Amino acid sequence: MSKSTAVDHAAEIERKGYTVIEDAFDEEEIDAMRTAANRILELVVNSSLANDRTSGRLALVEDGPGDQLVKKVQPVNDLSLTFTEFSRDERLIEPMREFMDDEPRLMEEKLNYKQPLPEPVEELDTNRPTEAWPPHSDWAYFRAQDYPQTVVSSAIAVDDLTAANGTMRFWPGTNDEYVEHERFDNGLGVPAEHVDHDDSELLEAPAGSLILFDSLVWHESSANDTDDPRRLMIYSHFPASAAQEHGIVEDERNAPTRRNESPHEWRYQELKDRGEFDDRFEVPEV
Amino acid sequence: MTVPLTDEEIQAFHDRGYLVLRNVFDDDELETLRTEADRILELLVNSSLANDRTSGRLVLAEDESGTQHVRKVQPVSDLSLTIAEVSDDERFVAPIRTLVSDDPVLLEEKLNYKQPLPESVPLATTCRSTAWPVHNDWAYYRRDGYPRSLVWSAVCLDDCTGDNGPIHVWPGSHVRHLPHRDTDEGPAVPPDEINYKGGVDVTATAGSVILFHSLLVHNSRHNDSGRPRRLLLYSHYPEGEYEGYFDQRNAPIRYEESAWESEYRRMMWAGEFEDRFEAPDTR
C-alpha cells in the first residue's frame, strides 16, 4: 500500500468512522486463514470434549431447537501463528498508523465464525442468546480497561460478507461523539431512540476484504440465515503512547482467558498422545 | 490434608525468613510432577527445534566442559494443568495465608530444573552455569510494584542435597532490604553488604515445600552432581497489597510463546515434524 493510499484510508476513518479495502488479501492467504480457522475450531471443541468443560474461548448459540452455531472464538493468536502474523501485517498497520499518528499495538483479537454446525455438539454449553450484535460502539466495551477512543479495529473477511449471512452495518459519521449505551440481552447497545436504520450503510464485500473502523462508530450485525459460515477475523489496536498515559497493562482483556484455557488445551493434547481421547468433532466441509 | 502451622513454625519463619514443610507431596504426586517436568521440557525443546528458534521460556546453560544444562523454564502453568492446580494447593497456600494474614494471589511460577543434558541440543545457551547470584527476590519484583511481603515457595521434585546446588540462605537477612547492584547474572547483593562465606544450605527431601520471605538473601551453587535438582517455584502476594494485574510479569512471554507452541502442535498433527528430543531418564 502506498503512503498516499494509507493516508486516504486514514482520512476516511476520520470522516466516516470506517473504510473498506477490497482484495487486501489474496486467495492463498484467505485459504491459509480458513485452514487455521478450522484447526482452531477443532482444537477448541475437541479440547472441551476431552476436558468435559466448555472452553472459555468458545461462544456458542442455540440456533433453534437442536441447532448450534459457533458465534466466536476469543482469543485466538496464542493458538495460531498464522493469525498472530496477520495481526502484524502492514496492510492493517499502515493505515492505522496514519490514523493514530502513533505506532499501533495489539489490544485483542477474536474470530467471529457465525458458523452453523450441521450436528449439535450436545456436551457443550450454549452460552450466547444469538449471533447478532445490536448497534453499538466497541469503545462501550474497551472503556472498562481505560483504553482510549482512538482504538481501531481491523476486520478481515475470511468469507464473502453478504446481507444474508449477517454482514456488518455501519452508521457513517457516528464516530464524532460517544453515546452512552444500555445493556441488551445480546450485549451493550445504543439506545433505540437514537438509532435510525435509514442512516446506516450495509457492508457487502468479498472474502479478502479488509474493513478498518474506529472504536466509536456504530455498527451492528444480523443473524446468519445461510448454512455457511461468515467468518471475520477481527483485531483491535491502540496507540502505543496510550499505554503510558492510561496505565494500560499488556493484553489485559484476554490474558486471563489465555492463561486459564491453555493448560486444558495441553491436557487435551496429552490425552490424545496417550491414546486416551480420540477427536470426536470435525469442522464441517464448507 | 492441610496441617496448620504451629506457633513455633510461624515464629521461625518470622525470625529466619524461611520454613521447611516436610513430606507435603507423596511419592505418587512426585511421580506425576516429574512426569510433567519431563513433558514440558520435551515440549519446549521440540517446539524450539521445530520452529528453529529457542523458546523464550527456556533458559539453557553451557558449562566450561561443554555440558548443557537446563537452568529453568518460565512460565509453566499455562502448559500444564497439573502445575496450574498445584499453585492453589492448600497444603502450602494455607500456611502462606497464615504467614501474610491475607489471601495469597499467585504472581508467577517457574520450574528450575538444574538438569544436565547427556547430549547437547542445537539451541541457544545464554549462561555458563546453573548457579544463581546472592540476591533477594524482591529486587526483581519491586520493579513491577509488587509488595515486599510476598512469599515464594519451592516444591522439591528431587532431593535437595549439598552436592546438587541447593538453595543457600542467609537466615534473618529478610528484616530489611539489602541494596543490589546490576550484574551480568541479574541484580545481586554486593559482598560489602553481606558475608559471602556465611549462610546455610537448605537441604530437604523430595516432596518438601520450602517457604521464603521475599527479602531473604539467598543464592545457589552450580549443580555438578550429574542429577537434576528440580524445584517448582511459586510466588504469592497478599491480595490486599497489590492492585495491578497479577500476571503482568509473565503474560507477555505466555502470549509470545504460545503461538509458536501451537505452530509446533500443528506441524506434529500435519506430520511435518517429528520429535527429536526426549527428556533424560532420571529414575
Topology summary:
The complex is a heterodimer of chains A (286) and B (283).
Chain A: H1 3-16, E1 18-21, H2 27-51, E2 58-62, E3 68-73, H3 81-86, H4 90-100, E4 104-117, E5 133-136, H5 139-142, E6 152-157, E7 168-171, E8 182-184, E9 187-189, E10 201-202, E11 210-214, E12 218-221, E13 232-239, H6 241-246, H7 255-273
Antiparallel strand pairs in A: 1-11, 2-3, 3-4, 4-13, 5-12, 6-11, 6-13, 7-10, 7-12, 8-9
Chain B: H1 7-16, E1 18-21, H2 27-51, E2 58-62, E3 68-73, H3 81-86, H4 90-100, E4 104-116, E5 132-135, H5 138-141, E6 151-156, E7 167-169, E8 181-183, E9 186-188, E10 200-202, E11 209-213, E12 218-220, E13 231-238, H6 251-269
Antiparallel strand pairs in B: 1-11, 2-3, 3-4, 4-13, 5-12, 6-11, 6-13, 7-10, 7-12, 8-9
Helix pairs in contact in B: 2-6
Overview of the molecule:
The complex is a heterodimer of chains A (286) and B (283). Chain A is α+β, with helices and mostly antiparallel strands and 286 residues long. Chain A has one domain (3-273): Sandwich (Jelly Rolls). Chain A is 30% helix and 24% strand. Chain A is built from 7 helices and 13 strands. Chain A has helices at 3-16, 27-51, 81-86, 90-100, 139-142, 241-246, 255-273, and strands at residues 18-21, 58-62, 68-73, 104-117, 133-136, 152-157, 168-171, 182-184, 187-189, 201-202, 210-214, 218-221, 232-239. In chain A, the strands form 3 sheets. Chain A has a 7-stranded antiparallel sheet with strand order 1-11-6-13-4-3-2. Chain A has a 4-stranded antiparallel sheet with strand order 5-12-7-10, with no helix packed on it. In chain A, β8 (182-184) and β9 form a beta hairpin. In chain A, α1 crosses α4 (90-100) and α2 (27-51) packs across α7. The mean pLDDT of chain A is 94. Chain B is of the alpha+beta class and 283 residues long. Chain B has a single domain (7-269), classed as q2cbj1_9rhob like domain (Jelly Rolls, Sandwich), CATH 2.60.120.620. Chain B is 27% helix and 23% strand. Chain B contains 6 helices and 13 strands. Chain B has helices at 7-16, 27-51, 81-86, 90-100, 138-141, 251-269; strands at residues 18-21, 58-62, 68-73, 104-116, 132-135, 151-156, 167-169, 181-183, 186-188, 200-202, 209-213, 218-220, 231-238. Chain B has a 7-stranded antiparallel sheet with strand order 1-11-6-13-4-3-2. A 4-stranded antiparallel sheet of chain B has the order 5-12-7-10, with no helix packed on it. Chain B has a two-stranded antiparallel ribbon with strand order 8-9. Chain B is globular, with a radius of gyration of 19 Å. The model of chain B has no long low-confidence stretch (mean pLDDT 96). The chains are: A alpha+beta (286), B alpha+beta (283).
